[in-house]
Amino acid sequence: MPDVRIAALAVVTSIVLFGTIYSVFNNSYLDTSNPLLTYLPHPLHATDYFADKKNPLNIYFIKQIWAWTTGAFFWHYFTSPRAARTKERVFQYLIATALFLGFTSWFFGPAVLERLIASTGGECVVNLPSGAVVSIPNEYCYTKSTISTATHQSLFPSALVFPESEWFMKPRLRRGHDVSGHIFVLTMSILFLVDQLRTSFASPPPGSIDRANMQWPPSHKWAVLANVLVICLALFATYTTSIYFHTPFEKLTGYLLGVAGFFIIQLPALKPAPEAAVITNRHASSEGEKEDATKES
Description:
Blueprint: H1 4-25, H2 56-61, H3 65-79, H4 87-104, H5 112-119, E1 123-127, E2 133-136, H6 139-142, E3 147-148, E4 168-169, E5 172-174, H7 181-201, H8 218-244, H9 248-265, H10 274-296
Antiparallel strand pairs: 1-2, 1-5, 3-4
Helix pairs in contact: 1-7, 1-8, 1-9, 3-4, 3-7, 3-8, 4-7, 4-9, 7-8, 7-9
Membrane topology: Multi-pass membrane protein
Transmembrane segments: 7-25, 59-78, 90-109, 222-246, 252-270
Subcellular location: Endoplasmic reticulum membrane
C-alpha cells in the first residue's frame, strides 16, 4: 500500500501550484505586504465569495486552524486502541504546536515570521483613516500594541489630520517578505493529521489478531470522520488562499516551511517500530541458540 503521507504531500503541492499559477494568469492574488493594499478589501471581494477576508471559512476556520487541528488530534488519539496511544504521537503534537507558536506567535521575542519580514526590509506601519501610511518603531508591532492619537501622539506628524472621534489601530509589519502564514500552517496541519490517521488504517502484524473482527468503536469512527473533514476543509482553504492572497513567492515559502515543519514532526517516529524490535530480538536469540548448539556438538 503506498504511503498516504506522500499522497497527501502530492495533493497539497498540486493545490498550491495550481492555485498560484491561476492567480498569476488571472491576476487574482493580493500583495498583502503592500501597506497601501492590505487594509483595503480584495479587488474581487464583490464577485468572488472567498476573496472576501470576512468569509466564514477565513474567520472561523483558517484563522483558528490549530484549534481545529488540536481538537481533531486529541479526539482521534483518545478513542484509538490503547496500543496506538503512544507517547511518540503526543511528542509529535507537542513539536507541531511549538512550531506553530514559534512561527506565528512568539520565538524568544518576535515570532519567526515577523523576524523574516523585518530582516527583509519590513517596517511597522499604521494605516490612518485618511489612507496615509505612517512608519513607527518595530517594537510596537512585536508587542501587538494598540496605537491611538490620544496615547501615542508623538508617533504622528502634527500635519496629519485625524477624525474627531476616537481612533485606534494595531500596527502591522509590512513591505518585507510576508511569508504566507496560512499556507504554512495549513500545509503542516494537513500532513500532520493525515499521518495520525495512519494508526487507524495500519495493517496488524500477520497472525496477531483476527482481521474479520477488527471494528472501530462508534466514538473512533466519528473521530476519524472529524479528522477527514478537517483535512478536506484545510485542503479547500489552501486552494482559496493560493488563489486570492499573497504573492507567488510568499505562498511558495509558506508551503516550503510547512513541509519542513512536518519533517521535523516526524523525528519522534523515526525509531524502529515495537513489532520490528521484537522480531529482531527473537531472530538474534534464535541465532545465539544455534551458535551455542554448534559449539556443544
